[in-house]
Amino acid sequence: MNHNDVLRRVRFALRIDDTAAINIFKLAGYKMDIEYLKANMRKEEEPGYLPCRDSVMAMFLDGLIIKMRGARSDTPPPQLAKGEFLSNNEILRKLRIALSFRDDDMLEVMKLGNFNMSKGEMSAFFRKPDHRNFKPCGDQVLRYFLLGLARKLRPDVASPVTDNGAPVNSPAIKKSLKKKVKPKRPGATSKPDEKRTKSGGRISVWHKADDSKKAKRPAKRREQD
């Protein structure tokens, strides 16, 4: 999930127009150009598309926190260092701070996005990366959250995403949230069933008949002196 998509969905859910978005960037100490902002809002297949950089996405979320919660100091928040990227976990954390969401709020939004999870699974996203219970937030989880956020804050408007209308519990996502399971021993795997031919022979794994009634070669006679 690229930052352009995240930026579009957050702006839709919070009803942020171009003027408000530019002011949010200004709060983070960044002067955003209107044409550059529009290019960051486009999809990859659209003409004039420019990928939204990690630093730009981080400044937008930092400015959103200041707008919603107030500034902690007179100086703008520090920007990402060159080569540093913004993870989905950080995006989720910054949105949670900006919206003053508690655990129950986060779970409610996830449920509105048609994804159910426990408090333990949710809290794993906000652990430090070196913590043993830390779990990376995948693109699909973030997508469910942003969909649920739009449905929570804009129930009167149809969501721009309708590809997962039915409630789901993705096995792939659930598997990524759980601890790794030890692989089974080779001996524990079941062997393919063997089938018998009409002649009584067996079909091997490679499906070649092994006829047990096939005549054996006669033994070689010894040459007489």
Q: Could you characterize what this model shows?
A:
This protein has 225 residues and is an all-alpha fold. Helix content is 42%, strand content 3%. It contains 9 helices and 3 strands; from the N terminus they run αααααααααβββ. Strands 1-2-3 form a 3-stranded antiparallel β-sheet, with no helix packed on it. Strand 1 and strand 2 (202-203) form a beta hairpin. The longest helix is centred in the first third of the chain and has 16 residues, at 54-69. The model is unreliable at 161-174 and 179-216 (pLDDT under 50).
Query: Which of globular, elongated, flat, extended, rod-shaped describes the shape?
Result: globular
SS-based class = mainly alpha
**Mean pLDDT rating:** 79
- Tell me the β content: under 5%
Major beta sheet, strand line-up: 1-2-3
Q: Could you give the count of β-strands?
A: 3
Which residue ranges are poorly predicted, with pLDDT under 50 across at least 5 consecutive positions?
Answer: 161-174, 179-216
Assembly of the depicted chains: single chain
The number of helical elements comes to 9
Helix content: 40-55%
The SSE order reads HHHHHHHHHEEE
Q: Taking Cα atoms only, what radius of gyration do you get, to the nearest Å? A: 29 Å
Q: How many strands, what sense, and barrel or not for the largest sheet?
A: 3 strands, antiparallel
First and last CA, distance: 86 Å
Protein name: DUF1456 family protein
Biased composition (Basic residues): 175-185, 214-225
InterPro entries: YehS-like
Region (Disordered): 157-225
